[in-house]
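Notes taken during the Thursday session

The instructor put the following on the board and asked us to keep it in front of us for the whole hour. The protein is Glutamate racemase. We were told not to look anything up and to reason only from what is written here. First, the residues (269 in total):
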Amino acid sequence: MKIGVMDSGAGGLTILNAIRKKYPFLDLVYLADDDFAPYGNKTIAQLQERLVKVGRFFEKENVQAIVVACNTATVAAIDALRESTSLPVIGVEPAVKPAFRISKQRNVAVLATPVTAQSKRLNQLIDLWKADSQVFIMSSQSLAFDIDAWPESEVKIKHTIHALCDVMLEKKVDTLVLACTHYPLVKHLFEQALGKGCEIIEPSEGVTAQLMRRLEESYPAEMTALLSCAVLQKGVIELCSTLGVKNLPRLTSWTADSQSITDQKHVHI
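Then, after some discussion, the predicted structure tokens were revealed:
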């Protein structure tokens, strides 16, 4: 069973790593669309057109499902992708529901890219679950893109995070939703800046669970046979980038199970 996972850069590897940890028998193909990054400053029409092309790439790779491991792409273009392919498509949603459930002081911050921060879907989720919570929607134009340039961009990233966290501390935020899959890659920097008094929520476990539900719905016989095996063979990981080979070592460094990477390649979309 082969699964395609995509993002504009390295951020979706937080989702890939969660899938790998929970279901190591799956083969995973990761696409970093670095050449089209950052997604946060593209129009909705541009993102929709791009995701349709990404879907065609994964179809040629013979995957059984596509995980859009990018909040911006999910809110802006996942419907266009679903209309263009017969494969199951799993998106990623900001984890606002669990954040509102665990917040003790009822002060929740949601940090996203500008496209996600302004999206109708995010605001619908917040209105649905916030109850009596104070919600602060925050965004950064550059943080996701800068994370893709780690470690050269480390100083700039730390400056951005400290500036964002200073605002959160001033507003007495006790729960932070990381609404971009890039941000958990530097979760430790948010933890350092915010201290132990702030819970940090990200969506990787929820996306992983939804992927398995969709696989069982779409391929019941295959999944039953696969899960009934006494010994499951460990799957392989393929890393792909649209920018060329120069970012592949960086992607490898963010991959938790890098020993299972069997192929790294530049792809054209």
